[in-house]
Amino acid sequence: MKRRKKMLWVTDPWSTLDHPRETTLRLMEEGLRLKIPQYWCDVKTVRMERSRVLLDAARLTKVDPGRATGGFVFAPLRTTGPEEFDQIHYRPDPPVDHAYLHPLQLLWLGAGRKLVNCAESIFALNEKHALMTEAGLMPDGIVSSQQERLMGFLRKKLRAVLKPLHLAQSRGVKLLEYSTAEAAELLRAATADWSQPVILQEYLPEIQHGEKRLWYVDGRVVSIVLKKPLAGDFRVNIDGGSELKPAALTRQEKSVARRTGAFLRKHRIRLCAVDLIGGKVTDFNHTSPGLVVQMEQTNGNNIAETIMKCLDS
After folding, report:
1. Which residues form the domain of 73?
2. Which residues pair with 68 in a beta bridge?
3. Buried b / exposed e across 147-168, counting CB within 10 Å, b at 16+?
């Protein structure tokens, strides 16, 4: 009989999670149903003592339907090392700041090759611009901290989307108009007085029709939904009420999806969520890809089962 992989999921503290909608907990629930050993760890317990990386982990034993806060049953917490597990899924929410990176560095020292996704890619690949090296996959854009270069790009495009490089969930994302007096001031503030790089991307008017979320496992798309922007806004905000609808890919989008999948496989990124607007990749999330619960509800299928079976194979 095949030995099941022993999986550890490292997240933000339990009290901060949105338990019914949390992708990590949905995957753990499905793993338990498939009899794959599931363990949970608070990222704050990851530490080094006496030259050894340690953490506190608890085995999941039961999940009540609906995954309410009190619907999870765990065995008692115990102190162990990351080397005990076959896979370590590091899923604190961004931003990718010191609080995010320091525990990941410890886990990499303790059991680096067991991390999913691989730590080297998380360290090296910024989610906002890594795919810019693949010609034609992302919208035209610039990554810089220099006032003249950023303003020159905005002058050329007239409208551009400003994104901080270290934030997520649309935080700090703004639509800039070259004709407005505030554009330079917004860029100055976002770059901390022209000292920190940001990304400016050309504005894609296709956003009015929505953006497509593609969920990847091992470079293969396993689910797609259309995310609609909020009324009167160009941004999608699921927590703020953006609507999800079933979707399919056009021929152009299928080509982009294949090229993106090859990029993910090359960099050993097993789990990833990618957003497309007008056939262009505008964002990809390999630090903590989410929306599995909402995508299952929208499409009426069990994405979590597909993901967990791939991880256990």
Report:
1. 7-116
2. none
3. eeebbebbeebebbbbbbbbbb
pTM recorded for the entire structure = 0.94
In a domain, 132, yes or no: no
Q: Is the pLDDT of residue 3 over 90?
A: no
**Does residue 284 form part of some domain?**
yes
Each residue's pLDDT tens digit, 290-310? 999 999 999 999 999 999 999
pLDDT at 1 over 70: no
Say yes or no: 112 and 24 in one domain. yes
276 found inside a domain: yes
Average pLDDT over residues 162-190: 92
Q: At CB < 8 A and 24+ separation, what contacts does 102-107 make?
A: 103/10, 103/43, 103/44, 103/46, 106/46, 106/47, 106/48, 106/53, 107/10, 107/46, 107/53, 107/55, 107/82
